[in-house]
Write a structure and sequence with these properties.
heterodimer; A: alpha+beta; Beta-Lactamase; 4 domains; 16 helices
Chain lengths: 569, 96
């Protein structure tokens, strides 16, 4: 059948057949669709299962369908993400393993190179490992202690249980330390550290042994050296303090490193105050001396210090301080006081002019009277006699002066005075001496207080008379006209004591202290009083040569009293 | 879900996964870490993840640490801020 447009029209039967065919095709397609849906669900389920499995491995919860639908699941590609994650985890593990391997090698190197003995134990004291130093400390060569009990292999029952560091670590669960544990003749410091597993249970204990034997010996040696140094320092201080002259030690930079007590007193500084300071800053006054000496300009220099208003002279001497072969380490400065020597020099100088004057005066009189007597003019007998008496008197005065000079010569030469001892009545001697003064000094009154009976003692009567003449002469010289001079004598214990008291000008404390010094004159400026400054010094030597003693009581303006004692034996 | 470079700091990657729950938060975080593996590993970049899922503060840091990254967790404005970047340091010890 053909349509009016020329197309062939299908019959009803044919249409029915075509419809059936289409329906069958649709059914097949539906079946295919169902199969595909089932296949997709199966694959998605597979993906979800695998993703969940992987997530579980990572440590998280399964993927929920309501959270991530199938469409987004496919788009997110979870397997790809998790695979990439695993890849990174594996890379990190490889890196970590490499690091751990290096750390293990480092620890092994440290373990065997350590200067301390290291012992690793399990909680039952079984030895798991130890290093070379521990083998050296406690084991014999070739001995294998692995698996042994530490108490047998190491301690050998020497260590007291109270000192067992292993026991302490087990008990406390943390690090322990014990000092100076003795194994045989060696001393050790022992440190114990616990190692716990991931379960928190103690799995190993590490014990570290440090041999401190040499350290202890060094400490003991150091203590001994310190004690010796202190002892040496003490001796040095004692020596320094026993040096009566001020002593200062400076280093190569002229800083004070040592001063003794005398230097401290002299310079008015504290013993430790100037230490370490420059000499010129520590001590202002001897600056000139110090500077000149330290600069090498002189090895000996004299300077003056004003001490409580009194000028004192010092001679500074230096010597180089050497330490081993290291050259000059500093300078020792010794200040020697020469005030007395300078004073004696001054007094000697004064003595020369005084002595010349003392000699010149009677000589002039002698020459004058001698010329008178030798003149051709006839002289009356009385004048001749008086002239001869003057000559005799002045000659005696010269004789006494020469005696003094001879005595001083002996004493200056270090010789003792020579005594000519005879038994004499001391009371009579006193009376004779006083009578001679009484006759010649009408200006003064004499009061004598002596025992009536004679008292015989063994003396050099010429020297004792000279002593008396000197003391009484001084009493006259320093007393105003009409002044009373009292002389008393008598027994005092086993001695015969004489006291001569005047009402003269008296003495100052310094004059009283120095009255017996050779060449000392109380007031050297007053030449009218005469005197050589030797009389009292010679008097003391004379009395002391007899085994006696002489002393003075005096106050300025109140007169003086001179005592001397002579032993009766 | 958004990943962006912060204008203020181009070394910092911001990932806001608030509203998501595990494990998709983890997968999202892992995917971002994988995409920026090298700069995150070297520490040139830091991944800042904002989440309000408490489980995520455990799972994401644990996975990142297993991968060898340095991780810090902070609390910020009622949410959590997980910062990932740089190499994880090895554990150190001292005398107790």
């Amino acid at each position: 059948m053909t349509s009016q447009h020329g197309t062939m029209e299908l019959s009803v039967e044919e249409r029915g057949l075509e419809f059936e065919s289409l329906r069958a095709e649709l059914a097949a397609l539906r079946r295919e669709n169902v199969r595909l849906e089932q296949q997709q669900k199966k694959e998605i389920r597979y993906i979800r299962e695998k993703v969940d499995q992987l997530l579980q491995t990572i440590g998280t919860c399964p993927l929920k369908s309501e959270e991530l639908d199938d469409e987004h699941l496919i788009a997110l590609d979870p397997i790809g993400i998790v695979s990439e994650t695993f890849s990174q985890i594996l890379d990190h593990l490889r890196y970590t393993n490499h690091q751990l391997g290096q750390a293990r090698d480092e620890i092994a190197a440290i373990f065997h190179a350590a200067a301390a003995g290291i012992l690793v134990l399990d909680p039952s004291r079984q030895i798991l490992s130890y290093n070379r130093k521990l083998q050296e400390f406690f084991l014999i060569a070739g001995q294998d202690a692995l698996g042994c009990q530490c108490s047998e292999a190491i301690c050998g029952r020497q260590e007291k249980m109270s000192e067992c560091v292993f026991e302490k670590v087990i008990a406390s669960g943390h690090g322990e330390h014990r000092s100076d544990i003795l194994f045989g003749d060696r001393h050790y410091d022992v440190v114990g550290m616990p190692i716990t597993g991931s379960d928190g249970i103690l799995s190993q204990i590490v014990l570290v042994y440090n041999d401190i034997t040499e350290q202890k010996a060094s400490e003991a040696a150091l203590r001994t050296a310190l004690a010796e140094a202190r002892d040496a320092r003490g001796k040095l201080d004692a020596i320094l303090h026993s040096v009566s002259d001020p002593l200062i030690v400076v280093d190569a930079h002229h800083r004070v490193v040592l001063v003794n007590r005398a230097a401290e007193d002299l310079l008015g500084i504290c013993l430790h105050q100037p230490l370490g300071r420059a000499l010129r800053k520590a001590m202002a006054e001897p600056l000139l001396a110090g500077t000149a000496l330290l600069s090498g300009a002189a090895d000996r220099l004299e300077f003056a210090l004003l001490d409580q208003g009194r000028e004192r002279f010092f001679q500074a001497r230096t010597s180089s301080l050497r330490e081993g072969n290291e050259g000059v380490a500093g300078t020792v400065i010794l200040l020697h006081e020469v005030t007395r020597e300078r004073e004696v020099e001054r007094m000697k100088s004064e003595f020369v002019s005084t002595a010349a004057h003392e000699l010149q005066t009677p000589l002039t009189a002698i020459i004058g009277f001698a010329e008178l007597l030798l003149s051709d003019d006839p002289l009356p007998a009385e004048v001749r006699r008086e002239s001869l008496q003057f000559v005799h008197q002045k000659a005696e005065r010269l004789s006494l002066l020469v005696d003094d000079l001879l005595d001083v010569g002996s004493l200056e030469a270090g010789r003792e005075l020579e005594l000519t001892l005879d038994v004499a009545d001391i009371n009579l001697l006193l009376r004779r001496v006083i009578r001679s003064f009484d006759l010649h000094s009408s200006r003064h009154q004499f009061e004598l207080n002596l025992p009536e009976e004679p008292l015989y003692v063994r003396i050099d009567h010429r020297r004792i008379a000279k002593v008396l003449e000197n003391i009484i002469g001084n009493a006259i010289k320093y007393s105003p006209a009409g002044g009373l001079i009292q002389i008393s004598g008598g027994l005092e214990g086993g001695n015969y004591e004489v006291a001569i008291t005047d009402q003269g000008i008296g003495m100052s404390a310094e004059q009283r202290e120095r009255v017996f010094e050779r060449f000392y004159r109380g007031d050297a400026s007053d030449t009218s009083l005469g005197g050589t400054g030797l009389g009292m010094s010679i008097a003391r030597h004379n009395i002391e040569a007899h085994g006696g003693r002489i002393w003075v009581e005096s106050r300025q303006g109140e007169g003086s009293r001179v005592h001397f004692q002579l032993p009766l034996g | 879900m958004a990943v962006k470079d912060t204008p203020m700091d181009n070394q910092r990657l911001e990932l806001d996964i608030r509203g998501q729950i595990c494990p998709s938060t983890l997968l999202t975080a892992l995917r971002t870490i994988a995409m920026h593996r090298e700069p995150l590993r070297s520490g040139q970049q830091v991944l800042a993840i904002r989440t309000d899922n408490r489980d995520a503060t455990a799972t994401i840091p644990a996975a990142a640490r297993n991968m060898g990254y340095h991780v810090e967790v902070e609390k910020e404005d009622g949410a959590y801020l997980i910062l990932i970047g740089g190499e994880a340091s090895l554990p150190s010890g001292c005398w107790p």
